[in-house]
């Protein structure tokens, strides 16, 4: 090995530099398990290789294959989230459950992203959005020090803040997000920007979200961004008080998007319609295809209880807990 060749992640010199971050991650994992166990949650572990990895339009899954003893083959994918499997357990009566799941998302890499990472996902029957926000805040207080510093941002975690998507767009884009829903030209005009070639409303929404909204979140304190437009929450219930929005929120800490949460949709017919719309959009964009998860729809139809669910990136929480500058610093193999 020459001086110009980087040493591998397992090399003693490189591992020694990461060990303080990794040991903090190990303590964090123990604290997370203790937090949910004390609240009456059961830890579960569901299959990683599945026929349907998820239905998110913009996620790319790792493809694999199962070969049976008789030589027949089944196309499978490494799941992008354990959500579908966990909802089936909820429909069966599992009660409050959590999972520390390895998940895979292709085409993702960088200081904050890894193609393979750990997702903390939990579901609580009967939870409201306020319940989930309070529980997320309690989890931060139970697993992090009172003051955190990561990505060059320092703040106190004791007093998180809340803002709706509509409020955020009005404040930072000077646009009425809900009034312009589905009208890309109206949103562009209100935000003072030009539509790009072929840009639809959803594309512009995400562009403005990434460039104008997200950079302002999780700066002074943990921030809960709530009430997404209904079209941007395929698995969430519409807000009974305003059906233009869904009961969904995201949590930002130290400028990092840390968690995504829904009050779950329990109407199987509406869920099927949303899945079909997502699948059609993914096909138009040249994305992957896989079978509809009919077992999930059957479980929802059988009786998914009213519940809320949260998906939280454990590796990013470890970055915040340890102050690590890169996600690779809190991965034992060091590869992002």
Topology:
Layout: H1 12-38, E1 42-43, E2 49-50, E3 62-67, E4 73-78, H2 83-91, E5 97-104, E6 116-125, H3 129-143, E7 147-150, E8 153-156, E9 161-164, H4 165-172, H5 184-191, H6 201-213, E10 223-229, E11 238-239, E12 242-253, E13 256-263, H7 268-284, H8 294-303, E14 307-313, H9 314-322
Parallel strand pairs: 1-5, 9-10
Antiparallel strand pairs: 2-4, 3-4, 5-6, 6-14, 7-8, 10-12, 11-12, 12-13, 13-14
Helix pairs in contact: 1-9, 2-8, 5-6, 7-8
Contiguous low-pLDDT stretches (5 residues minimum) are: none
Per DSSP, the total helix count is 9
**End-to-end distance:** 22 Å
Biggest sheet descriptor: 9 strands, mixed
Strand fraction equals 15-25%
What is the CATH H-level superfamily of the domain at 12-46 and 80-160 and 221-330? Bira Bifunctional Protein, Domain 2
């Amino acid at each position: 090995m020459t001086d110009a060749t980087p040493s591998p992640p397992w090399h003693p010199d490189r591992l020694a530099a990461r060990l303080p971050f990794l040991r903090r991650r190990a303590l964090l994992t123990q604290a997370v398990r203790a937090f949910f166990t004390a609240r009456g949650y059961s830890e579960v572990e569901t299959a990683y290789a599945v026929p349907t990895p998820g239905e998110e339009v913009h996620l790319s899954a790792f493809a694999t294959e199962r070969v049976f003893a008789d030589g027949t083959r089944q196309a499978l994918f490494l799941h992008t989230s354990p959500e579908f499997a966990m909802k089936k357990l909820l429909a069966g009566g599992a009660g409050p459950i959590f999972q520390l799941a390895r998940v895979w998302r292709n085409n993702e890499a960088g200081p904050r992203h890894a193609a393979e990472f750990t997702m903390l996902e939990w579901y609580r029957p009967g939870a409201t959005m306020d319940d989930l926000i309070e529980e997320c805040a309690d989890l931060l207080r139970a697993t992090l020090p009172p003051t955190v510093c990561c990505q060059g941002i320092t703040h106190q975690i004791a007093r998180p803040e809340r803002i709706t998507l509509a409020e955020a767009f009005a404040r930072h884009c000077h646009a009425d997000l809900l009034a312009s829903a589905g009208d890309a030209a109206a949103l562009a005009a209100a935000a003072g920007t030009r539509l790009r070639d072929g840009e639809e409303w959803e594309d512009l929404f995400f562009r403005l979200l990434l460039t104008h909204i997200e950079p302002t979140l999780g700066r002074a304190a943990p921030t809960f961004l709530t009430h997404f437009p209904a079209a941007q929450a395929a698995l969430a219930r519409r807000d009974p008080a305003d059906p233009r929005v869904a009961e969904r929120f995201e949590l930002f800490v130290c400028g990092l998007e840390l968690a995504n949460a829904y009050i779950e949709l329990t109407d199987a017919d509406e869920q099927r319609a949303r899945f079909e719309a997502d699948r059609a959009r993914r096909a138009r964009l040249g994305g992957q295809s896989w079978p509809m998860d009919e077992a999930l729809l059957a479980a929802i139809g059988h009786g998914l209880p009213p519940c809320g669910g949260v998906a939280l990136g454990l590796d990013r929480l470890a970055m915040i807990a340890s102050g690590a500058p890169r996600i690779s610093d809190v991965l034992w193999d060091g590869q992002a």
